[in-house]
Amino acid sequence: MARRLSPAIMLTASAAIVGLALSACGSDSLSTPGAAGTTPVATQTKDASLADKLPAKIKDAGKIVVGTDATYAPNEFLDADGKTVKGMDVDLFNAVAQKFGVTVDWVPANFDSIILGVDSGKYDIGVSSFTINPDRKKQVNMVSYFNAGTQWVVAKGNPKKVDPEKACGLSIGVQKGTVQIEDLNARSKKCTDAGKKAITQIVEQAQSKVTADVVSGKAVAMLADSPVGLYAVKQTGGQLEALGTTYDSAPYGYVLPKSETAFGQAIADALTALNASGDYKKALSTWGNESGAITTFAVNP
Q: Where are the domains of the chain?
């Protein structure tokens, strides 16, 4: 059982880290809300040539059902109302959907269940900061739209003197189902092969809980995708800091069924159009993620 945070720490963590709630209703939207105080992405005009490439199920429903882990700020997380999903991925994919003339039903889900949900037909698409890798491409089609790496984060001042290359025996936080698990597994194996203590992984279902574990001291560090780790540093009011630089950069991809290659290419074409209009980079810069912009969008790159 996870250690319960003290009331003071819980208040600080939950106030600073948006999206601790794990259950919510989906939201239909043709608008892209953006962050507070910023200009949202412009409403897109329907492209008939793209709309013609919608799968029959989506065309008939008039909406795309999207599975997303809404605990991964600033990419996808719950608004203050506890039910509206917002973030960079939301702004960008809402704009993509507008190109097809349909709405989006954002359905919060556990990260490690989304690909299975796409396979089973529960979701039409998964949009949840999925790093494109060979294992995932064996299961589903993936459309590239962003580039991110891994970032270590520790308590301000790094009081435990954490060194990513000397993490043997330390308790490190990580979200279930992410590529950072593989990173820690490899590092831990090096430790045990050298006769040292393994890394203790504190695995949480929600990234917001991983961040809270570092704030509380339950974990001495965490690994997360670079935009998420850096956003956590910003949002925790000086309680955390980035350790080292981002590494192992790779593209994020939208997750589609293996049978939907043509639809995947149409999504890549919609992204290309958004890039040409400047709205693609606007969606990223709204959330401070413009450094992850890519210029070529592809199916299974």
A: 7-11+149-249, 17-148+250-292
CA distances from 26 to 106, 111, 141, 147, 197 (A): 5, 15, 23, 26, 43
Which of 102, 99, 90 minimizes the C-alpha distance to 254? 90
For the segment(s) 7-11+149-249, the CATH number from 3.40.190.10, 3.40.190.170, 3.40.50.1820, 3.90.1310.10 is 3.40.190.10
Characterize the bridge pairing of strands 71-72 and 76-78. Answer: antiparallel
- Say whether pLDDT at 298 is over 90: yes
What pLDDT score was predicted for residue 40?
67
Q: Is the pLDDT of residue 20 over 70?
A: no
Closest CA to 285 of 84, 16, 40, 68: 40
Determine the distance from the C-alpha atom of residue 291 to the mean position of all C-alpha atoms in its chain, rounded to a whole number.
15
CA–CA gap between residue 125 and residue 122 (Å, rounded): 9
**Amino acid identity of 35?**
A
Helix (H, G, I), strand (E, B) or coil at 209: helix
State pLDDT tens for residues 36-62.
444 568 899 999 999 999 999 999 999
What's the maximum distance between 2 C-alpha atoms anywhere in the chain? 62
